[in-house]
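Q: Convert this sequence to structure tokens.
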Amino acid sequence: MLIPGLILVGTYAVLALGRLPGLRLDRTGAAVVGAILMVAFGGLSFDAAVQAVNFRTLVLLFGMMVLVAHLQLSGFFSRVARFVALRVHHPVALIFAVSASAGVLSALSSTIPYASCSRRWSSK
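A:
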């Protein structure tokens, strides 16, 4: 039980930090590596790991990522950012406009568009 506990704590530490310093391992990679280590070190059987996967959720997330990738490539998020930036001229109003547009985009699809729009707005 000590090794699976250490794997769990290590995985959550990387999730909290956002990446593993010194390696090119982000949150998604940390979750996958943590799952592999749990199965490899006996913290979870392979059958239990397969049963824990909700394939409907994976298909939904994959579909959302494909949709958002196409929206990104088409310039949709840049247009939303430009639309907001051109119409709002006060910093406080900009905060509200960005929050509202990100909220609408998140409600329509998922949290992935919010991250994409935030990157667009922060780079300008």
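The longest helix spans residues 55-74.
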